[in-house]
Specification:
Oligomer: single chain
Strand content: 5-15%
Bound molecules: S-adenosylmethionine, 6-(5-methyl-2-OXO-imidazolidin-4-yl)-hexanoic acid, iron/sulfur cluster
Helix content: 25-40%
Number of strands: 11
Structural class: alpha/beta
């Protein structure tokens, strides 16, 4: 019997998973991982900051907030031709999804046609497209979908009760509203959070509870380890125990069995052994390429060596031109998160 897809998790049962002996938790997560995915295969996405810095928001972790002195210079929206060139490089390096990030609270309506042109061009290269542009109105979400946007990244970042310790310029409900607009427009969601911000284990459980109890599980769940950037309020936060990070990955895998769990920001500070544990615990995606948005990611050579050491393969995913996120593959007993599980059937080894 496959693990049921649930949306009614209680905080205590999630905490009970966190409390399991590490070996038992990782074993359970690795077992569930195999119900929907080939655990030897890892999806890779490449990020590009298409509009950097100068953001009016006050997210305590973010080097792109204008109010913090982090040395990130504000840049205007990139030209579509330059974005396309970077997408081509990413595709040629083996990425299957290209994620365009903008340091906006929300895009202005006049920005949407420019971003839509980028999305069309990137999709024309055969890449899956993802964008993270801040809060969206319903019309903006529809326009992005119409341009061919496959995924929208919008993170809940942390538990509802910890949110206002980290961000004061918007509220949790704003994030939930944008996610609802993205779903209503028919796009897949990439939605996760950041750990290592000084939150408690209960708050890490609260983030995962909120993600898993959304009406549909996000198809992609990025789990970021805080990248501490000098000048941001969260720089100097006590480091999270690496095993606690692995536990967070394992619990995400258990709660959202059919979702792709991405080992996201923070890998630069992780050794190969820790990343290996994350893949064992159910992570099956990474950001690939030497930069995230403004901070460093591991060099591509290092990631190639990591994959070789672990015997993992990088995958190419057939773009889901007309995918239906509510459809379900034959190997899958769920009604959500199925698009990526289906896509996996179309995956082909490239490295
Ligand atoms: N401005 C848009 C927004 O906030 O939704 C999109 C870009 S924003 C940089 C995307 C995500 O990057 C944030 O939601 C956060 O989860 C992640 N992020 C930003 N700074 C980070 C850091 N220092 N460490 C880890 N993750 C970070
Ligand atoms: C996500 O969850 N992590 C990525 C992506 N979605 C957009 C961003 C990480 C940003 C890390 C800090 C920086 O490079 O500026
Ligand atoms: Fe702006 Fe996004 Fe950074 Fe927050 S996370 S300051 S909204 S770019």
């Amino acid at each position: 019997m496959p693990t049921p897809i649930r949306h009614d998790y209680r905080r205590e049962e999630i905490l009970a998973l966190f409390d399991l002996p590490f070996t038992e938790l990782v074993f359970r997560a690795a077992s569930v991982h195999r119900e929907h995915f080939d655990p030897t295969r890892v999806q890779v996405s490449t990020l590009l900051s298409i509009k950097t810095g100068g953001c009016p928001e006050d997210c305590g972790y973010c080097p792109q907030a204008a109010r913090y002195d982090t040395g990130v210079a504000a840049q205007k929206l990139m030209d579509a031709d330059d974005v396309l060139a970077r997408a081509r490089q990413a595709r040629d390096a083996g990425a299957t999804r290209f994620c365009m990030g903008a340091a906006w609270r929300s895009p202005k309506d006049r920005d949407i046609p420019k971003v839509a042109a980028m999305i069309r061009a990137v999709r024309g290269l055969g890449l899956e497209t993802c964008a993270t542009l801040g809060m969206l109105s319903a019309d903006q979400a529809l326009a992005l979908k119409d341009a061919g946007l496959d995924y929208y990244n919008h993170n809940l970042d942390t538990a509802p009760e910890f949110y206002d310790s980290v961000i004061g310029t918007r509220v949790y409900q704003d994030r939930l509203d944008t996610l609802a607009a993205v779903r209503a427009a028919g796009m897949k969601t990439c939605c996760g959070g950041i750990v290592g911000m000084g939150e408690s284990r209960e708050q890490r459980a609260g983030l995962l509870q909120t993600l898993a109890n959304l009406p549909e599980h996000p198809e992609s769940v990025p789990v970021n380890l805080l990248v501490q950037v000098p000048g941001t309020p969260l720089a100097g936060t006590a480091a999270l125990d690496p095993f606690e990070f692995v536990r967070t990955i394992a619990v995400a895998r258990l709660l959202m069995p059919a979702s792709t769990v991405r080992l996201s920001a923070g890998r630069e500070a992780m050794n190969d052994e820790m990343q290996g544990l994350c893949f064992l615990a159910g992570a099956n995606s990474i950001f690939y390429g030497e930069k995230l948005l403004t901070t460093d990611n591991p060099e591509t050579d290092r990631d190639r060596r990591l994959f070789e050491r672990l015997g993992l393969s990088v995958l190419t995913v057939a773009p889901q031109q007309d995918s239906d996120a509510s459809g379900c593959g034959s190997a899958c007993a769920c009604t959500t998160g199925a698009a990526e599980a289906d896509a996996e059937a179309a995956m082909e080894e490239v490295v």
